Amino acid sequence: MILAIIFLLTDLFICGITYMVYGGKPVYSDGMILGVHIRREVQEESELVEFLEGYRKQVKRIYAGVTVLGVAICGLCFWYSSIFMIAWCIWFVAYLAGALGVLYLNHRKLYDLKIQNGWGFTEDASTTMRVVDTRTIMKSGRMALPLWYHIIPLAILVIPFVSVDFRDYLGTFSPNSQGWILFITSATVGIVFLWIAWIFKRIPNRVYSENSDLNYRINYIEKRSWSICFLGANICNTIAWLYLVRRITKNRWIYNIDIWIYIGIISLSVIVAIAMLMWIKKQKNILQKEDETPLYMDDDYYWRNGWYANPEDARLFVQDRFNSMNYTTNLGRSAGRYLVGGICAGVLVLLIWMCVIFLRMDFTPIRMVREDEEIRITSGYTNTFFETDDMQSVALLEDGMPKDQYNRTNGSDDGKQLLGKFEGKKLGECRMYVWLEYTPVIQIKTKEYTVFINSKDANETKQWYDELKE
């Protein structure tokens, strides 16, 4: 159930955000429509209006199709997780192909229409205009919030370590326990927001007009707004961590509802970022519509296929044509092609690896073997080895797992099977090899952790128990 909900929300979020950023209604912005520079006065041309109407219909069909399919395959979570994961990976690749394909193909069609009808700003479509507004550049350092503001929420993350109860909780469990993992995650997220804020602060100001005041106002809106957004995200991250700390010190445990609230607080920053993006685009459009002296850089030739490819440009990363928040790679350089190829290959390998892992978890049987004084437990995910001298007790639990709160630290919990490393509120560190719908369950207490294991065959479980008792 949890897996289905997580992927359902993820699929809806991916499709919704991508549609808003790349698949929404194409509007005239920064002298472009759909990433192609076109003169403002040709917006009402019948051929252009007809093309954009066809594009909107095509985008709606594709996004509606992939969204419905993404929601439907989440139902496979109630069957085999591995089958669902394979279907989801295929869906994800098809989704990327559809989203990027419709964008790039229509971008190229519009570029060809522009050349055919002479809708550009210059006769040479490969012309690049580089304009510098020195007044705006001189003021760029004062546009974004100071980076040291981020140090305050980052420093607050470590304040809970002053509490004896909090330190005692973390010391009770291993270094890879959920408490430590969440602290490391919170610190990493905070540093990442600081790093992103630093990148955006260093982005050169763009020149939109011969009017220097207009350039300053647009760049100020962008940099100031995003710097506030990133600082707010860092504050949300700190608040989420402090909430967990309060729950830890009060209950000496982290429940699943606490994790969901933690994720929800951090997700507020994503919602704010989306709202900020829409507001910035609206303000830019308002300012640019009032401008009577616009300046444009018509380098569409290097973007004609939808991606940037300019072998004469020394830059490896350039601002994305379709979303000014993003940066894309210059595929005209060998380093750019190798980088993109490596990332695509890495993602493909990761998806295949995930599918293999889930297949092994679902279809590799759990085995327990005793050889002399060593006990070996193997599965499709994790293995456990310990000496018989390390065993403190062995029990056969006819009613299944003992009642406790179990948190997964490195394993799988799909509602049918517990597999891997867990922590119990009462039992501490655990190794799980348990089919939840089957009984009995063997409980093995060792010096370091507690092991739970069973088989779908009750007779095999009892046979393992007898071997352990010898």
From TrEMBL:
Alphabetic keyword roster: Membrane, Transmembrane, Transmembrane helix
Q: Does the keyword Transmembrane apply?
A: yes
Say which domain of life the source belongs to. Answer: Bacteria
The residues that cross the membrane are 6-22, 62-79, 85-105, 147-166, 178-200, 226-244, 259-280, 338-359
* Keyword Hydrolase attributed: no
Q: What is this protein called?
A: Bacterial Pleckstrin homology domain-containing protein
